[in-house]
Amino acid sequence: MTVTQGFLDGKIFHIVSGTARSLGVRAFVIGGYVRDCFLGRPSKDIDIVVEGSGIELAEAIGEKLHANVSVFRNFGTAMLKYKGVEVEFVGARKESYRYDSRKPIIENGTLEDDQKRRDFTINAMAFSLQEEDYGALVDPFGGIRDLAAGIIRTPLDPDVTYSDDPLRMIRAVRFATKLSDGDRKFTIVPESLESMRRNRGRLEILSKERIADELNKILVCPRPSIGFSLLEQTGLLEYILPQLCRLKGTESVDGRGHKENFSHTLEVLDNVAAAEIKDIAGCRLNDYEYENGVPVSKPRTEPCVWLRWAALLHDIGKPATKRYDAKSGWTFHGHEVVGARMVPKIFKSLKMPLNEKMKYVEKLVLLHLRPIALVTEEVTDSAVRRLLFDAGDDIDDLMLLCNADITSKNPRKVEKLRHNFDIVRQKLVEVEAKDAIRNFKNPITGEYIMELYGIPPCREIGELKETVKNAILDGIIDNDFGEADRLMRQRASEMGLVPVRKDR
Description:
Blueprint: H1 11-23, E1 26-30, H2 32-39, E2 45-51, H3 54-65, E3 69-72, E4 77-82, E5 85-91, E6 93-96, E7 105-108, H4 111-116, E8 126-128, E9 137-138, H5 143-149, E10 151-152, H6 158-164, H7 167-179, E11 187-188, H8 190-199, H9 208-219, H10 225-233, H11 236-240, H12 242-245, E12 252-253, E13 256-257, H13 261-281, E14 286-291, E15 294-299, H14 305-313, H15 318-321, E16 323-325, E17 329-331, H16 335-349, H17 356-367, H18 370-375, H19 381-391, H20 395-404, H21 411-435, H22 446-453, H23 459-473, H24 481-494
Parallel strand pairs: 2-5, 10-11
Antiparallel strand pairs: 1-2, 1-8, 3-4, 4-5, 6-7, 8-9, 12-13, 14-15, 16-17
Helix pairs in contact: 6-8, 7-9, 7-10, 13-14, 13-20, 14-17, 16-17, 19-21, 23-24
């Protein structure tokens, strides 16, 4: 019997144990909580499997704790919250699958049946909650051994496990990514990797939403490159994000080659993850929520998955724009524009949100070269104002992405670019403090122009507003109504417009 080292000392476990005994059923803690206990990781989710009705046990415990119980009868599960921890109950079951569906045919079963249907050995371990062997580890597939060895392995033949539910292939990648931490690295066993290659076509029966959910979980890991490397190696990425696979490889003409863009993308992704984690710890990043139309900044406490998506897709337009020039070598001119146009199509194909989250990714992909361009040119106030105006509240994330994008095998080049990048960052602070451009609002509105000149909505109004905006961003006038009004009236006079009233 494996000693549990106080893993089940919490009051909730004794309540579940006693209630199960009074109902005449056997209950076990299973899955992620057990795994995380041995890894020393905190867990706020507890899964209880019951040889009987999980719903009935949950409802009985809910009465004892005076806690609300959420019941999901279609899935045979129930959930309650206890002191900030989610406790989910399910009856032990065995499953069988049809080839054309990942929805199982479910029958009541024993703990052994339930453990056989689990995805990986490290997630199939259970702690007994029976009085006679309270806390004993039930581990028929050697999960504790695999955990110590850092191995992701299926309890049954991987062809059966992955063909039955192909989402488990992506989950294998996710756990290898999530559990790899510091010096500890988790790997998928070779027979599983081969099975994933054989069964990759089974992804076609999965919903895009489930795939996207797993990708999001991989992206917010500390080293997401592990996951995307595995997805590529197993052929899964070609089914999920073929656009990313096209970044692979290099080409050489007259002995001149270009950067391998797939590995560069993964390096940038890891750079973003490391920088974001550091900045979150130092409270240097904010997220923005809108209250009554006004942006309110709040310290970021968790990784931003959409920033990670921007890093993953920042060079997605390079294959379509790759050209070779005898003088300048390989070029990817306009790849940021092409890449930004690809973002909505990629989001749509994965059934991801097409709202402001997608627009945020689209914006960062489009602008990701702008700060780099400032690094290699004279950093003018005008250029900085325009960058602040275009990036708005996302300027900090854009700068983080661009800094992460500085990669080279030449350490001197990297050092020089980072030094110049720091100059740009300081210039941003100075211009922002002086001009408040980040949330720029044109002091001249369309309504004001229509009222002043007695005209309906028309092209001229847009031209006048654009004249004022450009003059402010270029530093010709201050962001002040009086100066803006004088300039607007001067330009309107040149266009032949005559005020119908003298004052505002």
